[in-house]
Amino acid sequence: MAFIRATGKHRRADRPTRTTRNVAGIATLAAGGVVASVASPALAATDVAPAHDTGLQQAVVMGDQLAGHVAAQADAQRAAAESAAAQAKAEAVAKKQADEAKRRAEAAHKAKVRAARDAERKRLNTFIAPVADSYVSTGYKASSSLWSSGSHTGIDFHAASGTSVHAVGEGTVVEADWGGSYGNNIVIKMNDGTYTQYGHLSSFAVSVGQKVTRGQQIALSGATGNVTGPHLHFEARTGPDYGSDIDPISYLRAHGVNV
Q1: Does the active-site annotation cover 231?
Q2: 152, 200, 231, 255: the active-site residue
Q3: DSSP string spanning 96-112?
Q4: Which residue has the higher pLDDT, 52 or 144?
Q5: Is the model's pTM score more than 0.85?
Q6: Could you say which residues form the signal peptide (predicted)?
């Protein structure tokens, strides 16, 4: 006699049906990204199959791998950003240092040029006495009948005939000829626009139009013109002609000559 399987709500599903339900549950959990020990009533009511590789396990592993990859990528991006920021900061510091070094170099160069210019100006503005190792024997504006104006328009330096006479500074010769009561005389237009005169010379060493330098020999002293003995007559003038004289002592001292 054949036995027929009982039917009813307590009838247990056959094995193919249980397997289908398990796979469906796992697929649902995997698709929803759920990682937990949660099962549907159908799964809870069935026997647990022996442990083996399932879709849920693969999903969990893949999720862990993806999370690790994203974290590693974020770390790499953060490290790259920090490196770029550090490089930008280093470049900014280097540029600032380079700009500062350039500024200091330019300032040093300007200071050097200024110092050289000042030194040259001082050199050009510093005169020497027209006769070396001498002294003033007759002062400026001294009164005497020897001079047609009634007073001395320059100063006299003690000098024997043939003594070397020097240009007190740099300039251009505008006169080198006989000058009446001055005898043989030289007039030089100085670089600052003033004029100097050297009188009673015995001979010339320069000619009109010639440029002279500070200390250059321009003549030899003598006793030509209106004199009582050999000496050098020296005048400082604002112009090339007689009557424009200024105090030669103050003039020479203002240019560094101790007389």
Answers
A1: yes
A2: 231
A3: HHHHHHHHHHHHHHHHH
A4: 144
A5: no
A6: 1-44
